[in-house]
Amino acid sequence: MPEQSRTGVKICGLTEEVGFDACVEHGADWIGFVFFERSPRFVTPELAACLARRERGQAKTVGLFVHPQDDDIAKVLDHAPLDVLQIYASDERAQQISEVFGLPVWLSYPVAGREELPPTCPVQRMLIEPRPPKDATRPGGNAQKLDWSLLAGWQPSFPWMLAGGLTVDNVGEAVRVTGAPAVDVSSGVESAQGIKDPSLIARFVRHARSN
């Protein structure tokens, strides 16, 4: 995200109005909806549409999908006005989705070591996050922290975002260590699973941009 001097912030897993409004009030750049039924933050297309119709300010809406079929995405887009599609899939599938729907696509990219960092970006942005635990029931949203030292000095030529285990208390350090141009948080700003805390959202955004 070289065109942006401040750290970009995405708040993911919105399920209710208070949290959504707090994202807008405190200047989040992106607000994410999870369309994966095994997630505790899953929302229906209808609920996402109701939330997305609220005052959004400059925030963009992001829909998260896990290995979706085209019909899965189309059914959501019939209801909810998404600005970005965030995908767990192969590079090739992510490219195909971008071509089919004509929307920016972000590819979630779990890594376990520096040698696994992507050399190129097949779509509009890469989300770098830790590999999920072996017993995980979902590919992300597990509050698992990436070893930030893997990213020290990494300067890819494409837009990317840091995700995984970020909180109010560690996001400032994460940005300093990794140089991440943008960060993604979900459980780290919650008062209960799936319920966002407005005060934590405010502090997270502030701390992410404190460098």
TrEMBL record:
Residues 9-206 form the N-(5'phosphoribosyl) anthranilate isomerase (PRAI) domain. Belongs to the TrpF family. Keywords: Amino-acid biosynthesis, Aromatic amino acid biosynthesis, Isomerase, Tryptophan biosynthesis. It comes from Acetobacter ghanensis. This is N-(5'-phosphoribosyl)anthranilate isomerase. The keyword Amino-acid biosynthesis applies. Pfam families: PRAI. HAMAP family: PRAI. InterPro entries: Aldolase_TIM, PRAI_dom, RibuloseP-bd_barrel, TrpF_fam. One of its GO terms (biological process) is L-tryptophan biosynthetic process. Its EC number is 5.3.1.24. It is an enzyme of class 5 (isomerase).
